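Q: Make up one entry.
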Amino acid sequence: MSAVYLLLLLLPLVSAQTYRWGPCPTPKVQPNFNLQQYLGRWYEIEKLPASFERGKCIEANYAVRKDGTIQVLNSQFYKDKVRLAEGTAVVQDPREPAKLGVGFSYFAPYSPYWILTTDYASLSVVYSCTEILRLFHVEYAWILSRTRFPPTETVNYGRQLLLNEGIDLFRMKATDQMGCKDN
């Protein structure tokens, strides 16, 4: 019975997220992923809802630090201000370099950040999933581009890839990239 109470307490926290019953799916990731080619700026084109991303002009910039970790610098325009969030990404298993772990706090474990596909020049499709008590999972998905306004067919390709991997896109929504300056 205590698991039910815990679940009821957690539900408001995930209301701005996408959650589904059961364990996380395990989609295929980019084979032969090359981190060096992935570095740089990516613009968020579409996403599953995320409470930490409510603004517009959302982008992420990836760079290698001297210690070998990856600096993740996310920015968005929210409530009339540019908001920045700096995190760290690591390759957790060198045999699967497209499965990164990302953290924005020293006190929390790394969250999965799996690159399902990328051509490094125009498209990246990213998925993240965390199980809660094996009862349900919270998932995120992003379609990213090197440009704020990629061709429709590029975005449709990313959406289809997510659908083929069994990821429900019912709540997927476009990110507003209109009127943005480089953050």
Notes: The domain at 2-174 is CATH 2.40.128.20 (Lipocalin). The chain is about 15% helix and 40% strand.
